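Pilot study result, target chain (75 residues):
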Amino acid sequence: MGTLIRFGKVRVAVFAWEHGRIHVHVIGPDFRCALDAETLEVLAGSAPRDVLREVRAWAAENFDRIAAAWEELNG
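Predicted structure:
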């Protein structure tokens, strides 16, 4: 598992042994979701609207970093 960034108690991570589209996991104290790294749509789970807004803005600017981590862990 590779944590890419933290926003307070929220962690954005890429996991190893994943499949499908490149995505990140958004993990907070009482929520969890998977977010497509290209379309920024929620694939599974849910997160508060303000958290999604912040993570989507970061992910849009850091797609290359997310893709590199995905490739490293899931080749």
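One observation from the pilot: The CA atoms of residues 26 and 52 lie 8 Å apart. A full batch analysis is planned for the follow-on phase.
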